[in-house]
């Protein structure tokens, strides 16, 4: 129920406050928080006090506001992401021991790729993917391979939204459709230089018990040293193991391979 003159609900205002923090600004003065959340300063002061009283926000020594440990505690009690991570971690560690660059686990969320976990070696190449961070799905190998294994109506809906929000025109949309078809056929996505010019992302899907592509496991390596003949089978082996751990039947894991 809306309970403000602007028509937004209490829940939406609380979500805007919590979502205002990111890796660049893990703590904020109340005035900056109000601007980021697009809320009146008085409303922000009141909601911050209430949320801090429940441990969902906290003040640091400088007086700035940051997310509270209570949020982490609640999220850690029951989370599909944590279940996925616990199943995937042994396979990610085995893969990382071979790749020795970056190995990452991700899901699709709101037309973006949300990274659940990342393993990196010292001296590895630059990687903009961060745990709990996001990237546009069409620039990420993980996002592209997950969209490639999504139903056609999901692909069409994404392209319609992208056309309005980011200016993807018809030729670009058709190019994405061709890429998705190829990725679905091959079982993997390889994108050189889309996020960082000197790196290549390679990813494969992970399937759940329903047979849907629920997540992706990928690597980021220096462009020119991808070695798909070795890297893709290693990724697929890891993905099969994770998929089985999520309850997927053997025949739904990379059925075209």
Structural notes for this entry:
Residues 70-248 form the IclR-ED domain. There is one protein chain. The protein is α+β, with helices and mostly antiparallel strands and 257 residues long. The chain has 2 domains: 10-74, Arc Repressor Mutant, subunit A; 78-252, Beta-Lactamase. Helices cover 46% and strands 20% of the residues. The protein has helices at residues 10-19, 30-37, 41-53, 69-77, 80-99, 141-148, 152-165, 170-186, 228-245, and strands at residues 27-28, 57-59, 65-67, 102-109, 112-120, 134-136, 189-192, 199-207, 213-222. It has a 6-stranded antiparallel sheet with strand order 6-5-4-9-8-7, with helices on both faces. A 3-stranded antiparallel sheet has the order 1-3-2. A hairpin with a 5-residue loop joins strand 2 and strand 3 (65-67). Helix 2 (30-37) packs across helix 3 (41-53) and helix 5 runs antiparallel to helix 9 (228-245).
Find the CATH superfamily of the largest domain: GAF domain
Radius of gyration from the alpha-carbon trace, in angstroms:
20 Å
Total separate domains:
2
What is the percent of helical residues?
40-55%
Structural key phrases:
alpha+beta; globular; Arc Repressor Mutant, subunit A; 9 helices; 6-stranded antiparallel sheet; Beta-Lactamase; 9 strands; 2 domains; 3-stranded antiparallel sheet; 257 residues
Chain-wise SSE layout:
Elements: H1 10-19, E1 27-28, H2 30-37, H3 41-53, E2 57-59, E3 65-67, H4 69-77, H5 80-99, E4 102-109, E5 112-120, E6 134-136, H6 141-148, H7 152-165, H8 170-186, E7 189-192, E8 199-207, E9 213-222, H9 228-245
């Amino acid at each position: 129920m809306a309970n403000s003159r602007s028509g937004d609900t209490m829940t939406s205002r609380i979500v805007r406050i919590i979502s205002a923090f990111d890796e660049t600004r893990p703590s904020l003065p109340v005035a900056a928080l109000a601007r980021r959340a697009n809320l009146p300063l008085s409303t922000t002061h009141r909601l911050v006090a209430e949320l801090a009283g429940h441990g969902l926000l906290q003040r640091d020594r400088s007086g700035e506001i940051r997310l509270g440990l209570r949020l982490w505690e609640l999220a850690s009690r029951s989370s599909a992401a944590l279940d996925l991570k616990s199943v995937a971690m042994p396979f990610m560690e085995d893969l990382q021991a071979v790749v020795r660059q970056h190995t990452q686990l991700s899901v699709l969320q709101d037309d973006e790729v949300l990274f659940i976990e990342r393993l990196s070696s010292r001296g590895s190449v630059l990687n903009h993917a961060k745990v709990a961070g996001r990237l546009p799905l069409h620039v990420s190998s993980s996002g592209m391979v997950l969209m490639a294994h999504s139903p056609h109506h999901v692909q069409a809906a994404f392209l319609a939204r992208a056309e309005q929000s980011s200016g993807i025109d018809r030729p670009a949309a058709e190019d994405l459709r061709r890429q998705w078809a190829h990725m679905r056929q091959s079982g993997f996505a390889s994108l050189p230089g889309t996020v960082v010019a000197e790196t290549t992302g390679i990813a494969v899907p992970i399937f759940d018990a329903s047979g849907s592509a629920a997540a992706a496991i990928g690597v980021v390596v220096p462009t020119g040293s991808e070695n798909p003949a070795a890297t893709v089978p290693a990724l697929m082996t890891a993905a099969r193991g994770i998929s089985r751990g999520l309850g997927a039947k053997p025949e739904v894991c990379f059925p075209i391979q």
